[in-house]
Amino acid sequence: MINLTATEIADGVRSGKFTAAAVVDAHLARIDEVNPQVNAVTVVLAERARQAAATLDERIAAGDDPGPLAGVPLSVKENIDLTWSASTSGLPFAAGDVPPANATFVDRLLAAGAIPVARGNMPDIGLRWDTDNDLFGRTLNPWDPARVPGGSSGGDAVAVATGMVAAGLGNDYGGSLRLPAHAAGITALRTSAGRVAAPGRAVQPLPLSLQAMAVNGPLARSVADLDLLFGVMHGADEYDPLSVTVDHPSRYDGPRRVAVTVDPCGWGVDPGVASSVRAAASALAAAGWEVAEVEPPAVDRCATIWRQLSATENAPMLLTPGVFPGPLSAGTVRYFTDNIVDVDLLDTSAAYQGAWAERFVHAAAWRAFHARYPIVLGPVTTQPMPPIGFDLSGPAAATELWRAHRLLVTANFLGLPAVAVPTGAAGNRPLGVQVIARLHGDHIALAAARDIEAAFPPITPVSPRS
């Protein structure tokens, strides 16, 4: 059963082909088998998951509708509220912080029949492109344990890729869904800003960059699963003033034009990455899309301002003693300290205001560009996933990573939806691309990703390699 997609599991449970209990037991057994090798799952929710599965099976036997996600086993990232365990954000001093209520989108998934079976690992408060912390330790990349699994939703990505769960829940402030999905050889949807409500119901002061650039979304082994999960998750709630309800069309019937950027900004691209982008472009062309190599607007400025805003807003939080009730891991502090060395911090009101004002200009330019090209196709990252420790090897490495992720963070900067989708594998290296659509064009990104996916054989679930 671990080979089945979320859609296949839900169809099978709903039809009576197999029970939710059997699905949950199969995935719990897979966790027991695989997780000791990769450390992707932090907490196994076996008892609660089995209770939920038994209840679901009873409802089905009584003739009730079990919901569109009947029996689908999920992982839930450590910073998304689920009352079954603490929301730690990877912090030792938060190990007892069990939330009083679920995130609204978690409640929606539960009501639709999904069953959380585990929590997914992450770096401290999600601020690394790797997955490691002092509470749970390091998550290993199942394709190559010498290379990082990406972050910050690395635990959930690895859990999905190895068949421990059918789908995962994560978030994305600087590529934290798409990058680990890419590293694991699975799909992920960075949703439009506001389409999925906050990861918890607590209301507290929130930096502007988090308000504008951070989103929650699903990871899965197929684009159809992303669509299924998003269709349940999306919509406003009464706790998140930034959340919105927008219709989610079941299909896209608009213009099918694609702007392909193989090497955004001309800053350099790995040959394997370039080949992946061109292979995806050929797949879209074969599916009837009109494809042209055209550079989207000002990726260099979008990526630069994303870095400036994130560094400026996070510096006081991370580098001021006493902000947290306990210490952050040495790796997170080192990573962030190295990251701000080469950044012109926006440390005057004029500079800070100017950055947000410039964002409006670039958002307008992308809106006009998307009117001509509804899809932008390009790399998730322009370089292979780095070896463990690279991001802590100094300021130059931090800048190199940011440059590689320039198109990744551009979508965050502008609040745009994007889907990471695999395009095969080369040895122990998954290959893939991302597609970016206009604001609230999540269905457009999913449509293009589905056509890319159809051209390549699936490469997961995968068993960990040594």
Automatic annotation (TrEMBL):
Domain of life: Bacteria
PANTHER family documented for this protein: GLUTAMYL-TRNA(GLN) AMIDOTRANSFERASE SUBUNIT A, MITOCHONDRIAL, TRANSAMIDASE
Biological source species: Actinoplanes oblitus
Domain (Amidase): residue spans on this chain: 23-443
Classification via InterPro entries: Amidase (IPR000120), Amidase_CS (IPR020556), Amidase_dom (IPR023631), AS_sf (IPR036928)
Gene3D superfamilies: Amidase signature (AS) domain (3.90.1300.10)
Name of the protein in question: Amidase family protein
Classification via Pfam families: Amidase (PF01425)
SUPFAM superfamilies: Amidase signature (AS) enzymes
Membership in a protein family: Belongs to the amidase family.
